[in-house]
Design brief:
Elements (H helix, E strand, L loop, with lengths): L3 H14 L4 E6 L5 E3 L2 E2 L6 H7 L7 E6 L4 E7 L4 H7 L4 H8 L4 E4 L3 H9 L4 E4 L6 H6 L6 E4 H8 L5 H23 L7 H14 L4 E2 L4 E4 L20 E5 L2 E3 L2 E2 L3 E5 L6 H19 L7 H19 L6 H6 L40 E4 L2 E4 L13 E4 L2 E5 L4 E3 L8 H7 L4
Parallel strand pairs: 1-7, 5-6, 7-8
Antiparallel strand pairs: 1-4, 2-3, 4-5, 9-12, 10-11, 11-14, 12-13, 15-18, 16-17, 18-19
Length: 425
């Protein structure tokens, strides 16, 4: 677990960014109805969790800042035997006071009345106005001198991961490694994408993962050319590739791994040629990662390498720079080289600062690197042997003091490793 002292340090750091004579309100996620009177599995709002470590709904974090003092108050649901009978135990005010390092803990039913009191003599309001909190919005509907989006400050803080956060991400990746290796060993011919997905999700749960970090993709053949393919309901066909984009979440922290593997355990020559191009591109981009490098530089490098390779293989024709300038490569490589990762798989942290300048890499940022090539089975402009192939390879990278660390390097990805681990038919 992350220590309560770390959550308190985060709150203190955020409070320093707030103006004097201000009130800040941050709300928990709402429980979401799945069907009639049943809910989806509850997951706390990432920003709220980042500052509190509190996992229950109907909660609120309040900052009160004057010139001389900062006060934090956590509002939680009261103990209720009948509600707990149906929906599980609540911590309640008394236990929350013992466990968490807030100045005060109050009951959520008093929130509306309390907010009116807090706002009486305050000039500045910090609030996430995108949240669905209409009752509270009415309570704070008065003439503040200024309104600010508090989430902007939190997202900036989330860019740099602490040692404890990195430890959880590593744990998530360790579990995900088992899932991908089990997928490679799984008897695929005669099975379906859904069966392979079930094997992956079983491995997550069996090894203590909270849940998957996102809706997993198990895409065989041409399905891999749909970037967000989540149907996962087709047969696994001999001589085709399966793109598996699957990562678990461990105690709220994500992993995000993609591997592309042959159904029958053996790459064809055409599959091998495309795979080696994507893998070589990924390796060379990862080698570039260190502090002060820009993500846009990584993107440019990936585009140059992929376009050069596709020209060589006869997939594209023309001069590389002209093709890139015309965005011709976007037909085969339409997405970015990677994204921040942490409490969210696409971590909600900024890519540009307040002056719209791109944020350079810094120590203990975590990002994914995921080049890919996607060729539709209907693309008559490409040699037939490449049609219907989609390949992506993705790893999770930590920026270190002088270089980088591939946190997922132990997950098989070379052709030799994948074929060795794969079940042959």
């Amino acid at each position: 677990m992350i220590k309560e002292s770390e959550y308190k340090k985060r709150r203190t750091k955020l409070a320093k960014k707030l103006s004097n004579n201000s009130v800040a309100l941050l709300f928990s996620a709402k429980a979401k109805v799945r069907s009639n009177d049943t809910n989806y599995l509850y997951r706390q709002d990432s920003n709220f969790y980042y500052l509190t470590g509190f996992k229950e709904d109907n909660a609120c974090l309040v900052f009160l800042k004057s010139r001389k003092k900062i006060k934090t108050i956590l509002f939680v649901q009261k103990k209720d035997a009948q509600e707990e009978l149906w929906n599980g135990k609540r911590l309640g005010v008394v236990e929350a006071k013992k466990r968490f390092l807030f100045d005060e803990v109050r009951v959520s039913s008093d929130l509306k009345k309390s907010v009116k009191e807090f706002c009486k003599d305050k000039e500045n309001l910090y609030f996430d106005f995108t949240k669905e909190t209409p009752k509270i919005k009415k309570s704070v509907k008065r003439n503040f001198i200024a309104h600010y989006d508090i989430s902007i400050f939190i997202k900036e803080m989330r860019l740099i991961k602490s040692k404890a956060e990195i430890k959880f991400i590593k744990k998530a990746i360790k579990i995900t490694k088992k899932a991908h290796h089990n997928a490679m060993k799984f008897k695929k011919i005669g099975s379906g994408e859904n069966e392979l997905l079930a094997k992956i999700e079983y491995t997550f749960k069996k090894n203590g993962a909270y849940s998957d970090a996102y809706t997993s993709i198990v895409a065989c053949g041409d399905s891999a050319n749909t970037l967000h393919y989540i149907s996962n309901n087709k047969d696994l066909k001999n001589k085709e590739l399966i793109l598996i984009d699957a990562g678990c979440e461990y105690d709220y922290y994500a992993s995000d791994i993609t591997r592309t593997i042959p159904v029958n355990g053996k790459f064809t020559k055409a599959q091998r040629d495309l795979y080696e191009l994507v893998l070589d591109t990924q390796k060379k981009v990862i080698e570039m990662i260190k502090p002060k490098i820009l993500r846009s530089d990584l993107q440019k490098k990936a585009e140059i390498l992929l376009v050069d390779g596709m020209i060589k293989l006869g997939i594209m024709s023309g001069k590389r720079n002209k093709l890139i300038k015309k965005l011709a490569h976007k037909k085969y490589y339409p997405h970015g080289i990677g994204h921040w990762m942490g409490l969210d798989v696409h971590d909600e942290a900024p890519y540009f600062d307040k002056n719209k300048k791109e944020i350079a890499l810094r120590e203990n940022m975590i990002l994914t690197i995921e080049p890919g090539i996607y060729i539709s089975k209907d693309d008559k402009n490409v040699p037939k042997k490449f049609r219907g192939i989609g390949i992506r390879i993705e790893d999770d990278i930590q920026v270190t003091k002088r270089s980088h660390k591939n946190l997922s390097k132990k997950i098989a990805k070379s052709i030799e490793e994948v074929e060795a681990k794969s079940r042959r038919t």
